[in-house]
Amino acid sequence: GQNIDQPTEMTATEGAIVQINCTYQTSGFNGLFWYQQHAGEAPTFLSYNVLDGLEEKGRFSSFLSRSKGYSYLLLKELQMKDSASYLCAVRDSNYQLIWGAGTKLIIKP
Amino acid sequence: DAMVIQNPRYQVTQFGKPVTLSCSQTLNHNVMYWYQQKSSQAPKLLFHYYDKDFNNEADTPDNFQSRRPNTSFCFLDIRSPGLGDAAMYLCATSRDREAAEQFFGPGTRLTVL
């Protein structure tokens, strides 16, 4: 079967750094995505990794290791507005997105 | 601004009463998707259209149907909503199947009484 695993919930402090992990097992691999979703809103695209390594975009970075079936999203200089769910999704050999259930990130002052 | 629009944002229907959710896009993307998302769960793909080519997920109930009359519009019809169909319904588009990003509409939250 295909599955995406990520922690259900994490808590971090404003101004700190947090790493959200994602492991996956899918039929084929055509890229890994991270989306941010605020409560009651639609997901918004954060990052895309298709090759191994780190992709940096401002305060957010995403890392991929295809051999390990592993990715993480790194958020630096946390702000209160970063409180949201972070969804990991993998595109399989049929170009379909397989979604994780999301990690709810709670930021405390 | 180019975007994905969903109407209505909130829909209340009665058990068994048919309901239609709509999605439109100004991005001129070839692919349109319908997802169902329940609280604290992953989005679940119901259907997608690649241009006019309709693709139904194997586990999408027959109660759910979709129409794409033209490039810009896509509809989700729920023929006989049950209490278990209460969810957020998300429409998304992508330029093509290989495109890196899917663009989501704001979603329609469906309540079934």
Write a brief structural summary.
The complex is a heterodimer of chains A (109) and B (113). Chain A is mainly beta and 109 residues long. Chain A is 0% helix and 57% strand.
Structure keywords:
heterodimer; A: 109 residues; mainly beta; 6-stranded mixed beta sheet; 5-stranded antiparallel beta sheet; 11 strands; 57% strand; globular; B: 113 residues; 7-stranded mixed beta sheet; 4-stranded antiparallel beta sheet; 51% strand
Note the topology.
The complex is a heterodimer of chains A (109) and B (113).
Chain A: E1 3-5, E2 9-13, E3 18-25, E4 32-37, E5 44-49, E6 53-57, E7 60-65, E8 70-75, E9 84-91, E10 97-99, E11 103-108
Parallel strand pairs in A: 2-11
Antiparallel strand pairs in A: 1-3, 3-8, 4-5, 4-9, 6-7, 7-8, 9-10, 9-11
Chain B: E1 4-7, E2 10-13, E3 19-25, E4 31-37, E5 44-50, E6 53-56, E7 64-67, E8 73-78, E9 87-94, E10 103-104, E11 108-112
Parallel strand pairs in B: 2-11
Antiparallel strand pairs in B: 1-3, 3-8, 4-5, 4-9, 5-6, 7-8, 9-10, 9-11
